Each structure stands twice: as structure tokens, then as C-alpha cells.
């Protein structure tokens, strides 16, 4: 019996071996190769020379890179906050056992399953002053109505926030709804007996209990922020001017458009370090909280 269990265990390890080799060879190998290229003077092709931190110095002297980081910080704060708020409200709404709950869950979650390359073009048409909302409202008789954010340098970034919140809030809704469904009904009965307002129950009791779901949602949204590329390309191409420039687009432009893989590699590693600095502490805190809950 023990021998059979050992055989099954080794079979499982053997099945996992290709994936483990892929992780080591592809992911870690690619990371190390990128790090090596980032300290060289490589442009079109990799080179074997060593220039130290020269590429990183050039990177942080590049006004376009600094602007992309500023845009990402603004976008990330608004996007994550809006998704958490909208997703929570949608989850609370569906948790009330509303009619057609299954259909509503599908409707709210469906945008997340769609490619933003396709839906981004639809949002571009909706927000286009000559084709979308502005034109429709003006045809209704409101000639002075203006909604030209997508071509306004000061507001174009907020159109990206609007469109991506529409796409991602359904995912937050699904995560938080699963957390809400795990809360004991006796808690609500006790709150009603004590006369505690519903909003107070959600704020002081429910939200702290949803911490695992909220932290998971936050980490997923943070990764989406860093990966932001397709929505920008589909909607604004980084414009008007550089108003919606983001790090991922900067990296792709320098990697393929400007043939400077050394600078693009340095930017990639800086972006990776940013992700780790944000996500790693949260993941550690979440793991510790779960361990305390089990003890």
C-alpha cells in the first residue's frame, strides 16, 4: 500500500516536471536574459558589452517614461478604487436574491471575458465627439452639449479609466459575491435584532470579513494596471500627444518601433520591481492573516 502511494506521488511529480522546467527555463531564464540586456548597450540586437546602470540612467532622464509612470499612478489609483466600489455595490445588489440573478451575474461578468482590443474600438466610437455620445445628445436638441474627453489631453486618461472599469468591475463583483455568500445568516439576524443600520453592518462587520476577497481582487487589479496596454492602443494610441502614455506602451514602442531593446529591457525590470513592491507586501500580509485564522 505504501509502495503504491509512493508510486502515485512520483507519478504526480513526473507530471509536474514539464511545467516546472518551463517555469525555470522560460520565465526565470527570460528574466535573467532581460536583466543582462538591460546592462548592455544593445539596440537592434543583443550585445555582450557591459555599461552598468547606463540604460537605467537614460530611462529616468526620459520625459516620456516619467510621464508614463505618472499616468500609470493616476490611472491605477482611480481604476482600482472605482472597480472595488462598483464591484462591491454590484455584489451587494445581487446578494439580495434579486430576480434573474444568474442572468445578471453573466451580464456583469461578461465584459471581463471579452478582448479589449475589440471592445476598446467600440468605446472609441462611443466617446468620439463626431460619432458617439456627444453627437447623439446634440441631435436630441442639446446643441451646446460637449463630451470630448477622448480628444482632450487633460481628460483622455479618464476615458481609459471609464472603459476599463466597465470591463473589470464584474470580476470584482464575482469575487466579493462569493465572500458575501460565505457570511453566516445569523449575523444579519443578530444585527436586525440589535437595530444596527444596514450600512453600518456592511462597513464595520462585512467589509472586514471580506478581507481575503478584497485582497485577491486588489492583487488582480494591480496586475491589470501594470499590464495596461491593449485598452490604450485600441482607444487612444497613447494620445492625444502623450496624454495616455503608459509604461507597457513605452516598452513596446522602444522594443519594436525604436529598436532599442536595452532601454526597453531596463524599463521592463523597473516595471517588474514596481509590481513586486506593491503586490508582495500585500500577499505576505494576506498569507499571515490566513495563517492566524487557521491557528
Automatic annotation (TrEMBL):
One of its GO terms (biological process) is transmembrane transport. Gene3D superfamilies: MetI-like (1.10.3720.10). The keyword Transmembrane helix applies. It comes from the Bacteria. Residues 69-282 form the ABC transmembrane type-1 domain. It is a multi-pass membrane protein. InterPro entries: ABC_transporter_permease, MetI-like, MetI-like_sf. The keyword Transmembrane helix applies. It is found in: Cell membrane. One of its GO terms (cellular component) is plasma membrane. The chain crosses the membrane at residues 12-33, 72-94, 106-126, 156-180, 201-226, 261-285. Pfam families: BPD_transp_1. Keywords: Cell membrane, Membrane, Transmembrane, Transmembrane helix, Transport. Belongs to the binding-protein-dependent transport system permease family. PANTHER family: ABC TRANSPORTER PERMEASE PROTEIN (PTHR30193). This is Sugar ABC transporter permease. The lineage of its organism: Bacteria, Pseudomonadati, Pseudomonadota, Betaproteobacteria, Burkholderiales.
Amino acid at each position: 500500500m505504501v509502495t503504491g502511494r509512493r508510486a502515485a506521488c512520483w507519478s504526480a511529480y513526473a507530471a509536474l516536471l514539464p511545467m516546472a522546467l518551463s517555469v525555470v527555463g522560460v520565465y526565470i531564464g527570460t528574466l535573467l536574459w532581460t536583466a543582462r540586456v538591460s546592462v548592455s548597450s544593445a539596440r537592434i540586437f543583443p550585445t555582450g558589452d557591459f555599461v552598468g546602470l547606463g540604460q537605467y540612467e537614460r530611462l529616468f532622464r526620459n520625459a516620456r517614461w516619467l510621464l508614463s509612470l505618472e499616468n500609470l499612478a493616476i490611472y491605477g489609483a482611480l481604476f482600482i478604487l472605482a472597480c472595488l466600489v462598483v464591484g462591491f455595490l454590484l455584489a451587494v445588489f445581487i446578494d439580495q436574491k434579486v430576480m434573474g440573478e444568474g442572468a445578471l451575474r453573466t451580464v456583469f461578468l461578461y465584459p471581463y471575458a471579452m478582448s479589449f482590443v475589440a471592445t476598446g474600438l467600440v468605446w472609441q466610437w462611443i466617446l468620439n465627439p463626431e460619432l458617439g455620445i456627444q453627437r447623439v445628445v446634440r441631435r436630441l436638441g442639446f446643441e451646446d452639449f460637449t463630451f470630448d474627453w477622448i480628444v482632450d489631453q487633460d481628460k483622455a486618461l479618464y476615458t481609459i479609466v471609464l472603459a476599463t472599469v466597465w470591463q473589470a468591475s464584474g470580476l470584482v463583483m464575482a469575487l466579493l459575491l462569493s465572500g458575501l455568500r460565505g457570511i453566516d445568516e445569523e449575523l444579519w439576524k443578530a444585527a436586525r435584532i440589535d437595530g444596527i443600520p444596514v450600512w453600518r453592518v456592511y462597513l464595520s462587520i462585512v467589509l472586514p470579513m471580506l478581507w481575503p476577497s478584497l485582497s485577491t481582487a486588489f492583487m488582480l487589479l494591480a496586475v491589470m494596471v501594470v499590464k495596461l496596454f491593449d485598452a490604450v492602443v485600441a482607444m487612444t494610441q497613447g494620445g492625444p500627444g502623450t496624454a495616455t502614455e503608459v509604461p507597457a506602451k513605452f516598452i513596446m514602442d522602444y522594443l519594436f518601433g525604436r529598436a532599442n531593446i536595452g532601454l526597453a529591457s531596463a524599463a521592463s525590470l523597473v516595471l517588474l520591481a514596481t509590481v513586486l513592491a506593491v503586490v508582495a507586501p500585500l500577499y505576505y500580509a494576506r498569507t499571515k492573516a490566513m495563517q492566524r485564522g487557521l491557528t
